Amino acid sequence: MTPEEKLRCQARAAILKAIAHPTRMFIVEKLHQKSYCVSELTDMIGADTSTVSKHLSILKNAGLITDQKQGTSVYYSLQCECVMKFMGCIEQVIRMNLERQAAFFA
Q1: How far is CA 14 from the centre of its chain?
Q2: Which CATH number fits domain 3-80: 1.10.10.10, 3.30.530.20, 2.160.10.10, 3.40.50.300?
Q3: I need a labelling partner for 47 at 20 to 30 A (CA). Which of 3, 7, 21, 83 fits?
Q4: pLDDT truncated to tens, each residue of the chain (106 aa)?
């Protein structure tokens, strides 16, 4: 592996690591639909504000979401819509795995 390949793989892994939590996946899916503030996401998720803020910080640091202050609230939105294509790919892998399991137990 060349140094450039290693850096590229490390950068990809950092983004995947940021997404690789059920709550953060949920946040990404919700932000694909529209922008939300922390309190709205907190209500949807059912977690403390500090916990949701930490998840948002991880996603923002990975470059997956952006924030914009509107009045006294900060609204978050998905930075790059192509992330949802990757989520679709994950869904396809899940379906294939379920089909394999169903065939095994048939």
Answers
A1: 12
A2: 1.10.10.10
A3: 83
A4: 999 999 999 999 999 999 999 999 999 999 999 999 999 999 999 999 999 999 999 999 999 999 999 999 999 999 988 899 999 999 999 999 999 988 888 7
